[in-house]
Fold each of these.
Amino acid sequence: MAVAQKLKSFDIHAPNAREGAECLWAQMRELDGLHHGVASGGFHVAARYEDAMAVLLKPGLYASGAGITLPPPDGVRSFHIPAEIDPPAHREYRALMAALLTANHARAMEPDIRALVVDLIARIPAGESVDFVRAFARPLPILVTLALMGCPQGDADAVEQMVEDLHHEIGTGVATGAPARLKAYAEQVVAERRKTATDPAADIVSSIVLGHAFGRPLTPDEQMSMVRQVLVGGFDTTSIALATMMWWLAGHPDEVARLRGDPAAIELACEEIVRFASPSTYLRREVTEDTVLGGTLLARGESVLVAFGAANRDPAKFACPEEIVATRKPNPHLGFGAGHHRCVGSFVAKAQLRVAFEEILGAFAGFCLDTDQPIEHSTGLGQGIMRLPMIFTRA
């Protein structure tokens, strides 16, 4: 399909939405105004870095409170706190999570993260084809998220299935029962923790259960919503970044050698992987009053889709944007968002990436893509590698 035709029918939930997206993003950035999509009720796309930043830094004009998914919520539904709460209320809720997700807390978690990484690496078979996503990139962030919550690691498979079903339902409109299952799981976690929690610093769920906002304890619905938000936002993006990391390393043996010889350089490489992958590829905002963005008049109530993937590859902001430049510095990417809603778990996500880099480079003498099997990508709001067949050789 020609680029012009694909642009006209642009739909982030289409089965092949990630295929050729870079070309579509380039076309969008070159338009005089914002691209207007007709799928999902209609939306404008902020594809240029400058336009994306304008949206992210003006939460009063581009609101999250009406839902950040595309299509937008239809009718009454439970919102995710704090992702779908606007300032200043957003700050009260976010503080309960942010206190346990600081850079210092992420560093303190590293021994536990490393233990999980080492265990998952030990399970990867050598000399045969293995899907790196299912073997490593998917389970690691799920297990880390459950640890942050103080939940049993045995819940990992059930939680993963619920979140996958939820994304499928959002994208297709086909009921899966995932929203009700996630709500029930979050309610169960909250109810059990209320009986035992004594220290808000013990884990995120304890912080939520014992925490206060607006000078009062959270209601049961607020507690459930925040726990559900951690589940929904806690691992999809990190999984995509980890898979992108291995895809890149498999094709660049010179970079493998360089990073093995200079582990301190892994930090910059992690930032660049996040820029390139843009795991949170799209998020919606709703216009609260008539305004102009990128030369386009927007009316109150219209949807603006922030295209993080497109903004992070804007040549007006990044040199060689279509390449992973592991030494890129500075790197003002939007892979974790910006402004009030910048990813609250970014430090923990980067810790997982860095530790995974270190341990994988040490554990394997070599690795390559299994070219006999296809690489698959997800669709929807978070688009990235969801299946990565590889072959590993142990050190």
Amino acid sequence: MKKLATILIVDAIEPVLSFWTETLGFKVTQQVGEGRLDFVMLEANGIEVHLQTREVTKKMAPNLPEFGKVPGCVLYFDVEDLDSLEENLIRLSNTGKVKILIPKHKTFYGATELYAQEPGGHIVGFAQI
């Protein structure tokens, strides 16, 4: 295997995109769609995340089971500056764009973590060791 890219299925890309680009610093490396985005490839420091609409996913792979509103995985990022990221996430949570699920806390294994739900509904964890 050479690499892993996570594909996040979302209702619409536009409401989710700024979380990934402005808050987390990802850059758009590819996008597909006319008028409305259907697919976006994002990259930051060798990490690749793809956003794809539920509608396009159904068209491309009609035999896949229906993706529910609650995702079955958690994206877990190691970060260098959890305090700054926490400030941004709290600011976004005050606007209703992000929901802090588990506030910043120290774990029994020595990491400081927090978990949030991004605008597309996916759970994202952040840790600083």
Amino acid sequence: MSSHAIDLVAVDKHPFREILRLAVPLILSMTGLVFMQFIDGIFLAWYSPVSLAAMGFAGMSNYLIVSLFLGTAAYASTLGAQYIGAGRSLRAAASTWQAVYFSLGAGVVITVCGVYARPLMGLTHHAPDVLAEEIVYFRIMCMGGWAALLNNALSTFFSARGDTRTLMTVQLGGFAVNALLAYVLIFGKFGVPQMGIAGAALAAVIAQGLCAGALATLFLGRAQFRTEFGVWGMRPFDASLMARLVQFGLPSGFRQFVEMIGWSAFMFYLGRIDTVSLAATTVAFRINGLAFFPVIGLASAAAVLIGHAQGRHMPALSARITKRCMVLAEAWMLLWAVAFIALPHQLFAIFGATDAGNEAMTAQIAAAGVVMLRFVAIYCILDSCNIVYVFALQAAGDTRWTFVATIILYGGFVAALSIADALHATMAAEWTMVTIFAMTTAAVWVARFLQGKWRTIQVIESDIEVA
């Protein structure tokens, strides 16, 4: 076993402790991300409900494009974890380099999308005032997409090692910078011109760029990494390893891409109902993120442990890790389900207007949002399965099947949304569809995991192949 590998004996003996040891920094990072999005949403709600509505769809559309490349490059973390578990740590550093090269190429594609922001956003036929701000936000986020991609690619080295504390420190620092810059740029403080939604986008891009710079400095600057992982020596482009990253990572990236198509379609159709429905859904998603993103932190920690276990051919341990992670995730989601039912008015009150001109629309947004949170309370209980089991399947290399299943599931979801739109369905009807859909996907992932075909998938090459 590599000296860098996680102690799997300790993991098997104290699974909850070891999952939480890795997960707490990731949970704090995810909480920081949610807090950042929460703050951005509050600032834009104070600035203008129109800006809030525009950020919801434009932000999701930007992530729709970026997610394909993020998901592919992020698979370097799984490759790295399995290599370290198998005692081949140099290959972990090489995997990160391939993710960096992939991300640099992807950044060009995303920048081009930003050039065509006007025609792309124009397809929505949203209200003219909303559309104008969607174009601005989408363009800036795409032009700066390289920052998020490099931040993601460099993170894979640290997550593969289980060094979640470093990731937490860097990401929380970035979130703090984002919050400060968003306040200054949106409202025009300290002599800076008031930029509104453009300021929110610029703050996010700058913060991501700073995080990428910090991770690059740590990755290349630590003597330990140069000595033990050969980070500089492993920098050459490796066609075979890039092919392996694409083989397993691209289905993962496409899965996220398809998921974002589904959720972007949901936002698109809600925007066709009215601006209030779109803005209320934007806020509801921000609030739901308080429950959702910490579970991603838990699942990410479990995925690291599963990667190490699979690298050492211990699928039974991977199954136990997944089940323990599910227990923790479900307990967390149950707490938030209670909060969504008991405190919906208080949660939406945070996004109240600060001037008389916005009070009427804000009251309508809050009223609609309270109804939405009741739906969220129902589906979030099973939504943890959509996170934990997908992460576990991905970490074991079952990316192709999950991609195909995602196409089928989300294809049906978008078709149902299209039919509902043609029938002029209400906001409540479309949220009912979302709730049913979330429960259905959860059942599919659980069934696939219990089937057990992931146990025999080989993600990394054998020692003989490398030699």
